[in-house]
Amino acid sequence: MNTLTLNTITRLIQSHQKPFLSSYKKNRIPLCLFFSASLITLPSLHVHAATFPPPGTDAIYNTAGDNIDATVPGTSKLILNAGQNTTLAIDGITLQILNFNNLGGGAIRVNDGGMLTIQSIDGGVANFNMNTSTSAGAISNAGTALINNSIFNDNHATNGSGGAISNAGFNALAIINNSTFSNNTATNGSGGAIFNGGSTAIINNSSFNNNSTTGSGGAIFNNTGILTITDSSFTNNDASFGGAIASLNGTVNLNTTTGNTSLFNGNTDNSGRNSITFFGVGLTTLNIDNQNNALLDMRDPIREALSPTHSTHITQTGSGVWALGGDSNFTSALEVDFTINGGRLYLYNTDGSLGVTDGTIALPGTGSFTLGMGASLVAGGNNTISAQTSTVTFENGSIIRGGSSSQALGGGSGLFENGGSTHLTITADNGVALNGQVTLAALDVGDTFGLDAVLGDGIGVGSILKNGNGVVVLEGVNTYTGGTGIQGGVLSVSQDANLGNALGNLSMNGGALRNTLSFSSSRNVNLGAGGGIFDTQADLILNGTISGNGLLTKIGGSTLVLNGINTYTAETYIADGTLSLGPTGSIASSSGVSLIGSSAVLDIGLLSAQTIQDLSGVAGSVVDVLGSLAFGTENSTVFQGMFQQNGNLVKQGIGEVALTGDSSAFAGHTTIQEGTLRVNGQLGGSLRVSSNGRLMGTGSVGSLQVDGTIAPGNSIGTLSINGNYSQSTGSIYEVEINAQGNSDLIAVTGSALINGGTVLVIQEPGTYTPGLRYTILSAAGGLSGTYDALLPPPTLFLAYLLDYDSNNVYLILSRLASAFADFATTLNQAAVANAAQSLGLGNPVYNAILNLTSASQAQQAFNALSGEAHASILGSWIEDSRYVRNATLNRLTQAFMPQVTAEKDKFGNPVVLTPGGTALWGQAFGSWGHIESDGNAAQVSRNIGGLFIGADREFGPVRLGVLGGYSRSKVDIDHRASDARSDDYSLGVYAGKQFHPWVAKAGAVYTWHQLDMTRDVSFPGFFNNLRSDVNGHTAQGFAELGYQTHFRQMNLEPFVGIAYVDVDSGAWRETGGAAALRGDNSANMFYSSLGARQAMLLSFIDVAAIHERAMLAWRHAYDDTAIKSTFNFVSGGIPFVIQGAPIAKDSFVLDVGLDTDIPRKNLNFRLAYMGQFAREVEDNGVSGTLSWIGD
Do 261 and 297 reside in the same domain of the chain? Predict the structure, then answer.
């Protein structure tokens, strides 16, 4: 490192010397400058010290890139007179201005009309250090001084004011930006750093640290001037008066811009900690403007210093925070007006880490403290505002609250309000005037804010609104007349006067009123939608009216007495303590009373006759009834608590109230006037059931008179009567029974007197049998009298009887003489009814029928049990036999019926061809249809599809053939919950011979059936799902004789035919339950047919000919078409005969389609419609046949 020491240098650096510094930089020689009393010169290097420029000219102090400081030593003072303007531009370096010692401004003096500008370029700094003068240690300004980015350190006014700067003069203006003032002093004067005498000083973003004076204003003394300070800090400054700032009259403006913090901390004067002191004989104004999220952090208090003729006006505006600590005392002033027009005034709590004590404000005998609309006064500790005879006013919309640890003070400080327990005392001889509605708040749960003040009306009517989730304690005897509102948290009072004038209302829309001492109040209460809570830490009597639509909730261990005729409509909750309804009180409009805590009590006084709506309560809760209480609506509720005392209870409303607690100690009388009282606990005293009332349950009651309905149990159960029992004419005993022999029971410890009434029997689902005997009433003290009537459940086959002895009433079941078949309406129903009755008592089918309650149920049961589907299946097999029969006859018709072609013989007649040779053929078919019900058997829906194949050839004059096939059919009988699936396999032979023009055809086919049947047997009290596998067969033989002729290109063949069909189910047996059947059934049918076949050529080309071919016939069945089958129940009983759905007696059969012949391939394809139409039967189907006919 190279060192250069300079002394007695006229100018160190000016702009024309840049080439020297540039060349020095090129040599890359580090340079450090030190100043001493000797001169050391380097070869060819001449450096001059910095000086001030001539007055009225400018100077630039800079480097060519090296960080080199420059110094103006204290030898050449800069004096600017009127008209002389000088700018000291400091570019990127620190310009040291030090050791000046001159009168009237140690280093620089700006006279009236002169102007000094200290300009910072690229971080350049002016450092005024160790300058001295009798006053204005560094700068004396009587003109204009614009000072930027400067440091004033260790400057001294040895016998005057302004340790660093004196700004004094009629036109003096000092604007100081981004500067630091440290360790400056003023001896025998004021303003340790700055003296502002009758002038204007504007200070922005600057700091004042450790400045002091033996006079006033450790940092700044404002003597009748205008002092504006923005975003600046004052720490550890000291003076006799005004540790940081003292103002003799004049105006002080403290501004903090958005998001910034201004700080006063550790400043002291002879009173102790102090930020600002006001004094004089005129007026001093302090204006505080804290913008959004800005913080004026004034940990040191402000005060007035022994100025009985001086006034101070303090005004806060903006939306930011003024945090004030310590004891701010103004009592020595003539008048102080303290106005918070915006933002938040936060009074600090004692905090050792911040070095701050509880904020207090003491006002003189005259003056005011005003909290404006929207402004907040926040107590962060145990704070006090002492106003004496001054006026304290809280404007409409202002807020007073306790501190909350969730609330930041702002300004990026990281500080938060002190929460928990806070307190504010306002002592004012004239009380606190409320000019409208003022909000009191404790924001968070766990915050408690106490306010000790006398709150009264100001201009107009004053009122209080409690807000926040914490607790606000009102301690004053308040007189405001506009009422009190609670919207959250707790408002705690110890006397009615805490809530203002006795005529003021209380409005609650969420939150609680807590009383800590006993008192009574006649004020009216309104419950908003959020409801209201009364927390009685001592007894509270409300004589006024409670109205509104919100809930009323009672908590706290003491008693709340309601003496007003209240009209609120929501529910009443009692969580703790006692809610007492006085003789004149009423909560009849409340939608119900719920005792939601185990220590909750509803008290009905001796002279009180009360009506409430719904009543409910948890176990342990108590309703004390000395007077009378009517309760109940159309709703159902449960009261698990206890009734006590000896008053009267009335159950009203059509709903049900269930009592599950132990009210055996209740010694009064209960009346069930309407609706149901279900006693599943104990209820003492006497009880009467009125004609519209109903008593149920499995608990116990006292002596009982029943004029209405009694229905023991919750289902089947016993109701105990601890006393005597009587039942009158017109009353009803609803007794519930089950098939296991259990029943309801009225168990009387005393005597029972039955003066008529009706026993109404209610059966649980089950299977009841004759011989069951139920005890439905027992009386240990004896039984007298009988019931007038017995209303049994509907029954067909069972009888219900009442029987008596000296202590009991019995209900007995016996068998009626009616037969099952008495209720049958069809042959099938009668047949199965007789068979079911033959099964006998104990059989599930018999027992189930025995319990049917209507004829329609019996008929449903008989139809379900009949097994009718098995009979109808035989009829379906007979009907379906025609498909293989028709396929065979159609093939023989194709073989023998001549086909008229388009060719002509030599006479012009069409050529007629007769097919011959060997033939192979196959037919696929499908059909769907139904068999109608005849009123006895149910309708059958069915469909079938399959494939037949065959082969035939001529053997001499006879054509012989064989065929085989498979089909699958489905049968559904919906009204009998039955369905079947059948796989059918067929094998047959056929033959034909032509005796021109006659043709004879015949065949025989045997079909095997593999059938799967399922049935659901379902009727009240019974269900079986049954299944059976049936292996049956169909055998048939058939013949037809036809006469062939033709007309032009049409062939005709009238014919007659016969067929015999025999079907057999084989032995089968159902499984799946007691209703299972077994059988082995067969049937046969003889048919005759009369009809005609017709064929005609429609089109002929070289490769194919298209023919239309049709058949229409009348078919007649000769035997009984209602197929009969004999069944037995697998479980026993007599056999019975069931008829199936009837097959067609007379029907028209139609087969019409198109044939396509391809002679060159010897192929024929036929597509046809098949139909059968009868009164009972209808079938529709299609078929497709492919034939190969050889030569």
Answer: yes
